[in-house]
Amino acid sequence: MSVSTGPLAGVKVLELGTLIAGPFAARFMGEFGADVIKIEDPNGGDPLRKWRKLYPEVGGTSLWWAVQARNKKSVTVNLKSPEGKEIVRRLAKQADIVVENFRPGLLEKLGLGYEVLSAENPGLVMVRLSGYGQTGPYRDRPGFGAIAESMGGLRHITGYPDLPPPRIGISIGDSIAALHGVIGALMALHHRQANGGKGQVVDVALYEAVFNMMESVVPEYGVYGMIRERTGASLPGIVPSNTYPCRDGSIVIGGNSDPIFKRLMLAIGREDLGNDPTLASNDGRVPRTREIDDAIRVWLCTRSIDEALAVLNAADVPAGRIYSVADMFTDPQYIARQMIQHFPWQDGREIALPNVTPKLSETPGETRWLGPQLGEHTDEVLQSLGYEPDEIAQLRANKAI
């Protein structure tokens, strides 16, 4: 188990969460050096341990777990037991950041709310991720990322107008919320350290994190009463930006800046459009979206993806194929940037996992170890809190850990 040299080395994070939003936020901090202690239920631990593909396939652990819990220490604690609550209070007293994604009010019922924990640790920053936030009429409702994507507006504008709104194939609402939690935690930590401030609560509602990504929909509705609708693969009001069919598949082209549009039109032999002064800026192109898209489609339909990309890349036009994960494993850009790394799993087999991002030149993040076995670090962490071996044995006998 390697010692961290990342930019968050020395920052202590206590994770009280399961599944995606809270654990992803803590994972991000752990990748950049924070010491993350993850509290898990002794009876099975985080349910994500059994989500999606398992290794081995029968009775194994989720391959997702290897990534989501990397660099974390697993400590099993029964939060309903008095001894378990005392362990959490001791850990929180030493922590810089607590991350939790329980339903609002649960920690308070357990006697582990922010007021209790911060009374002994005034500098504590608590990141609270929930479906609807800690206040408001919906605070007590259960809320998952899929619901947040719907309420936050993402689902309404995703897909084709003649079909029901689809979901994106990953838990994007949870992940967006997690990143907001990390940003909020680091801002609160900076305020504490640089401005002499005290700790505080970072209240992240999943639907609000999605809502924060919605670009111009609010002022467009506020001023014009315009409700943005589903537009398929195109980006409404930004032309041309779409998915276009080639002879052997589809590519995405972003030709929406003014000079790029002109280069794109010249590259496909449509000098008439490229040199048309009424199309020189986006507001002139929007009314003629179909004409521009049709010109691109006509040029692409007889060309393969490779042929089209060769021309577009030479013309300095942003364009690319639509990658599957198999493409990522062999792509020279992914390889050059080392975005797929290999790490030994518990049985010695190497597994592939995504490398840490973003890339910091002086203090890069890293994978120090993969997601731990349930309770792997319980004894180590409790000993660091001053518990003696016989006390730990008694806690185990009492089912507190």
From TrEMBL:
Listed GO MF terms: CoA-transferase activity
InterPro entries for this protein: CoA-transferase_III_domain (IPR050483), CoA-Trfase_fam_III (IPR003673), CoA-Trfase_III_dom3_sf (IPR044855), CoA-Trfase_III_dom_1_sf (IPR023606)
Alphabetically ordered keywords of this record: Transferase
Top-level division of the source organism's lineage: Bacteria
Entry-linked SUPFAM superfamilies: CoA-transferase family III (CaiB/BaiF)
Name used for this protein in its record: L-carnitine dehydratase/bile acid-inducible protein F
Organism annotation: Caballeronia sordidicola (Burkholderia sordidicola)
